[in-house]
Amino acid sequence: MSAELDIALPRIRDAEGYRKFPYKDSVGVQTIGYGCALDTGWPETFAAAVCKLQVEEAETECMELDFWNDLDPLRRSVLIEMVFNLGIDRFLGFHRMLAAVKAKDWTAAANEMLASRWAQQVGGRANRLARIMESGADQ
Question: Would you state the CATH architecture of domain 44-135?
Fold first, then answer.
């Protein structure tokens, strides 16, 4: 970051203030965060950066699982994607699936994933993730 950005960024954050939820700014524009206008849309680079941050946050939450270090990278990636999609609280509600993952019973874990309301909601995504969980391969 340039010296100018290092100076401007804290000033902008202070002036804009942070808002977790969308609001209308002083001229009626839907805004979120630090004055980020929603009516102009997001450039793909911005959306990709936000997505990356959210995936990193999901990974950090997954790292708290007591069996995380016992999993291979592909199965870890399945859990990260589920946390990204569901949020950590809903994900932790998959008690039987998590127990199966901990026991390395990949078929049971995949079956539990597919037996959920989440699987009905996301369709092909759940099927794809369940196949990866069961096989340990990215098909």
Answer: Orthogonal Bundle (1.10)
For position 104, what pLDDT does the model report? Answer: 98
Q: Which of 70, 72, 93 is nearest to 135 (CA)?
A: 72
24-38, 54-68, 119-133: the lowest-pLDDT one = 24-38
CA 82 to chain centre: 7
pLDDT in tens, 39-70: 888 889 999 999 999 999 999 999 999 999 99
Number of residues that make up the chain: 139
Nearby residues of 139 by Cβ (< 8 Å), 6 or more positions away: 128, 131, 132
CATH 1.10.530.40: which residues of the chain?
44-135
Q: Which of 130, 60, 121 lies closest to 101 in space, CA to CA? A: 130
Q: Confidence class of residue 109 from pLDDT cuts 50, 70 and 90?
A: very high
Give the bridge partners for 19, in sequence order: 33
AA letter at 80: I
Exposure of 68 by Cβ count < 10 A (0-12 exposed, 13-18 middle, 19+ buried)?
middle
